Amino acid sequence: MTIWIRNAWYMAGWASELDGDGLLSRTILGQPLVLYRCEDGQIAVLEDRCCHRAAPLSRGRREGDQLRCMYHGLKFAADGACVEIPGQQTIPPAMRVRSFPAVEQQTLVWVWMGQAALADPAQIPSWPYLTDPSWRNLEGYIHYQADYRLIVDNLLDFSHLAYVHENSIGNASQATEKAQLERIPLGLRVTKLAPNEPPAPHFRKFGGFTGNVDRWNLYDWHVAGNVMLMDGGAEAVGKGGHQGPRETAVQFRHMTALTPETETTTHYFFAQSHNFAIDNPQVTRQVHETVANAFLEDKAMIEAQQRNIARDPTAPMQAISHDAALFHIRQRISAQIESETGAKRAAE
After folding, report:
1. Across the chain, what does the average pLDDT equal?
2. pLDDT digits 0-9 by tens, 118-150
3. φ, ψ for residue 9 (rounded to 5)?
């Protein structure tokens, strides 16, 4: 049974991973890929499997914009066509590997895993805080031994912050106050306001708050590509919160992109941008480490959850009221997968 959407842009990596002449091997939606940067700066993405004897092309050699398989020497162009077979003059038309549309945007590399004719770069989520000079961030990556949908569930549920993250980014109100949900074409808009509450540990650290704060988390969840774009912050009570001028607020702009690797493993890319102390690299490292450590807290719980599910996949999971957002997105994912499957059956 298919568990992921194919006609979507997925984050394949950070653009910095493709600096120089190297090859990047990465599996996405169960498909091994090899990525590299061409001499004109464009990104080439090919199936990481030579069409001759199935050798990984990522073990090959760059020759300009072409890639030579180092098993029997076949050479492939950036579009996947075989352009040379040592000792053989005629190259059959079928002698090629699949290529995938790819786009570099705002330090990110996106790859389209579905029907190439449907790949529209305008659908790629834009997040200017990654490159805006008035914001700072570091590139983050975590590899999960878990089904990507369990991580989606986690990111759409604020109630767990009070328990999994009680010593890092959470506080008690996260488990009692429910988020406001708005269904939008791309997925879901989530508004979580926590007025007049004690600051979470990371807000005390970066904002120096001694009294209560008004905290906000406002984000859009993109069903296609599993992308979360969030405006988060806190400010002393009485300053207007997220609707005020935010002159004394501690603000973050967060991006997470979940890219399924296999049915039970996931690439987790993230960046936590901040607009304070932007000339202090140590603060940027501390902001990054704070959110990275919180995600490792999630990782430990979610991977343990995955192991339990693997032991008994048919055991039911009972719902609670905090599950509304994740249920909606699960339904949207399933509906889009069914739509793709139906379209494929109709075309056959």
Report:
1. 94
2. 999 999 999 999 999 999 999 999 999 999 999
3. -85, 125
What interhelical angle do 281-311 and 148-155 show, nearest 10?
A: 120
Instruction: Give, in degrees to the nearest 5, the angle at Cα 79 between 78 and 81.
Output: 100
Structure tokens at 165: 């993250």
Q: Over the stretch 52-96, which tens digit does the pLDDT of each residue have?
A: 999 999 999 999 999 999 999 999 999 999 999 999 999 999 999
List C-alpha distances in Å: 72 to 44, 53, 88, 93.
22, 9, 12, 18
The first and second tokens of residue 253, run together, are 């702009």
| 257 vs 207: CA distance, rounded Å | 27
- Output the DSSP codes for 95-159: -B--B--EEEETTEEEEE-S-GGG--GGGSPP-GGGT-TT-B---EEEEESS-HHHHHHHHT-ST
| DSSP character at residue 324 | H
Instruction: Say how many Å lie between the first and final Cα of the chain, rounded.
Output: 18
Residue found by looking up tokens 């040379």 in the block: 84
Region class of 187: left (phi > 0), else alpha (psi between -120 and 50), else beta: left
Residue 309 tokens read as 């599910």
| Domains of the chain listed by start with CATH number | 9-121 (2.102.10.10), 127-338 (3.90.380.10)
Q: Which residue matches tokens 């993250």?
A: 165
User: What tokens appear for 96 in the block?
Assistant: 């090629």
Q: Is 141 helix (H, G, I), strand (E, B) or coil?
A: strand
Name the phi and psi angles at 284, rounded to 5.
-60, -40
pTM: 0.95
Whose structure tokens read 């759409």?
Answer: 156
Q: Which of 85, 80, 84 is nearest to 47 (CA)?
A: 80
Which DSSP category does 326 fall into?
H
Largest alpha-carbon pair distance within the chain?
A: 78
